């Protein structure tokens, strides 16, 4: 733990500068707008430790992999979102001396991330080696209205001297990824141009030839009066800048406004990209800082109006949930179906910015409830577009006839992961992709999605499962051999209960989907059957045989679902038997020891119970929770939220709250001392789930919204909003009861605890002691 940030309801605040925390703060104070993002590095020079990170959604590099022992089927490359040219840089010289926070004396340093407005601020007083003192204030934001624009307001006030201040405002394309496998740089610069008042760089990525152009313009003001200063220009191969020098007297403030455009060939023609960057930056410049800021703040207000969660009586929890929601909204805005959500978003390089099952299993529920349906739809369409690649991926592993295995890690549909036990065996990810389709439809009622895109994906996935099982003549059952479940502390196990469960569910749901499309859209049905070459009777009779005869490991004595065959042969210990100083165990134990132990990295059987809760009675849920929770180490950030939801379900509110806290402040309090690598963006959606699905008990039951609210003892009240089939429902839970407002849409009928209530449009309902 490292609790150096102040608690506040809307802001993240760091007071005083400790270089030891700087890289964590660079992650925590990150900005993003769905189209691009960046760590909170400084505008001015900084010679201390920093991880410079500027990322553009969808621009990546296929870095050649490093593996110890090559295995057939491994991918050739690992895709990485690239650290892109840095456009925020402003070198500041005070009477010829470079302002560098690692070298001057600092006081009154405050860094603030205003989450309500989406603005990063910094202020400090610096004393230079010659005694000159300046007060500096910086503000920047990445517009969520014009997502190719970033803006900085940077001001310097001379506190105790008269002299000269110079600002060198630059774009630097000489950047590299820290995680480059062979220490290569991934960019070639095509064009660099610096003219009076503006500068541009176009760079292309090696291998895939993505083009990116960054442009900048600026204005200079002294005590609110615009200054016209002739700049000196630098135009080097990978670096362009304008330097302006101004006279300053004690007490005067000089402000530079820097406007940047950040364009990529995903959205612009390569031949026009520099012209377009000029246009975008000129428009931003013309609009001016205040207008850009105002429209940006208004757009954030709209986002918050739909997605905020309020918590009364617990500032730390309030700050944390807003931080999680803010980061999710910065990472993915759902306008572009080519984009997805990397586990670290735009805040660091770990996991390469690629897509994992995290998106479907964790992020989809968040976006379903807090955004327009198209936002989640685009996440589903992303996978639909990659179906052919998933089929090729399965073919590489020996499957056929349209069986699809979606990759564990991907950028464009091709597998990027290269550890056999995950790449080939952690196949449960396929199930999450099918489940997300079901989840989307039950939430939005957009059943037409099945005919348009969904069914193709479901068939590919079901075909994979039907080929992946083996019929065991010994057991007279179908079995699934050699898999890794969500718990990655077990590899190459037989009959992971979760994987077998989700595989069967997929084959059953695909049949329901067929039925629906046949009835609602017979023409499209015929077309799909033909395109997929689907022999309905033959294929579904095999699926049904598997459904009826699948082996699900179970411990007769405890009545608990077994995580996999043979789980009870392990020495049965619990997390409390471990010495906390040797946690996380993956940093202290050999892999062999981990594999032989009963310790569980993350929700596995419980992940299945969470997804298919309606199939199990309360006693079964309790039994399994009580068995698995003590053995689970939660060494993946994706884990505590699922346990928290189930703890709420079984009425263990204290455990639910304890696990909620662990996920919600994971990065803010740097529980695992790894915030410097980037934030746990995808598990932030899990934090949201632990409030809404956990404490709020929100479910969709038979097509209707249902709530079973509980409230942690420490809270006076909490509220959240859920978009559901055209309605926007605002739920407030307090010690006294539950209030529900039907804010948007027609009349809605909702189950609260066990009773059904109709809430007319624009009206509300209050139930005391629900
Ligand atoms: C987890 C996976 C997850 C990945 C990316 C791993 O530590 O075990 O379930 O997909 O991180 O978040």
Automatic annotation (TrEMBL):
One of its GO terms (molecular function) is hydrolase activity. Residues 322-689 form the Glycoside hydrolase family 65 central catalytic domain. It holds the Pfam family Glyco_hydro_65C. The keyword Glycosyltransferase does not apply. Residues 13-265 form the Glycoside hydrolase family 65 N-terminal domain. It comes from the Bacteria. The keyword Hydrolase applies. Residues 698-758 form the Glycoside hydrolase family 65 C-terminal domain. Belongs to the glycosyl hydrolase 65 family. PANTHER family: GLYCOSYL HYDROLASE-RELATED (PTHR11051), MALTOSE PHOSPHORYLASE (PTHR11051:SF14). This is Glycoside hydrolase family 65 protein.
